[in-house]
Amino acid sequence: MAQFTRIEVALKMKETGLVPLFYNDNIEISKEVLKACYEGGARLLEFTSRGDFAFQIFDALNKYALAELPGMILGVGSVTDAASASLYMQLGANFIVTPVLREDIAMVCNRRKVLWSPGCGTLTEIAKAEELGCEIVKLFPGDIYGPEFIKGIKGPQPWTSVMPTGGVSPTEESLKKWFDAGATCVGIGSQLIKADQEGKYDLDRIKNLIQECMAIIQSYK
Fold first, then answer.
1. Do residues 62 and 74 make contact, with C-beta atoms less than 8 angstroms apart?
2. Crossing angle, helix 54-68 and helix 82-90, to 10 degrees?
3. Contact 149, 122 (CB under 8 A)
4. Distance CA 159, CA 153 (A)
5. Average pLDDT of the segment spanning 79-84
6. In whole numbers, what is the pLDDT of the chain averaged over residues?
7. What pLDDT, in 10s, does the model give residues 119-147?
8. Going by C-beta distance under 8 Å and a sequence separation of 6 or more, which residues neighbour residue 21?
């Protein structure tokens, strides 16, 4: 079961401002990348469930985090149905991120008081998600909507917390735009954690890039 409540996760998202996204089907590689993120200062990671038997990788990765990386909060993204959300919560997922708004996922997550962040693209969807108990809405795909979308919805709904994912770059220019617009945190995947042509990850680069991102984010929060 989750080790962190949805309120604790939401507060950590707001505090650090960064949620790295990552998937690899090799558990040892996944552990190395997770450790690099942790050493860079990240305290959240969204494991994107996009491969066969991904739940087995997450199970091993979460056990590693619990044993070796105190305070690391692992969640799962790309979840599209309540059954998958329930499975990952049984394996200890501390938050669930979805590409779409689904009430069945909201129900199973709320039942266990696990934070869920649905992908929304309209103010109506955002309002519905909040009525269903959502703390932080995922704006997806972020590059389609842009920072101005967040600025726009903050007018009628200043209480809304938004995490753009997709279209966020680990650069000062990009991060400044999103946080100046009112983003609570950002999700960054391949632009932050990317393998080379041989499938290898530069762990030092990942660590340093996360440190740089978090320093930039804190300067604009």
1. yes
2. 30
3. no
4. 10
5. 97
6. 96
7. 999 999 999 999 999 999 999 999 999 99
8. 45, 46, 48, 77, 165, 187, 188, 189, 192, 193
CB 123: neighbour CB atoms within 10 A? 14
Residue 115's nearest CA partner among 65, 54, 200, 185 is 185
Question: What strands lie across the sheet with 44-48, from one edge to the other?
Answer: 162-164, 137-139, 115-120, 95-98, 73-77, 44-48, 18-22, 186-188
128: helix, strand or coil: helix
Q: Distance between CA 19 and CA 94 in Å, rounded?
A: 13
Distances in Å between the Cα of 172 and the Cα atoms of 44, 49, 124 are: 20, 29, 31
Alpha helices in the chain (DSSP H): 6-16, 27-39, 54-68, 82-90, 103-111, 123-131, 142-145, 147-153, 172-181, 203-220
Which tokens sit at 110?
Answer: 């709320």
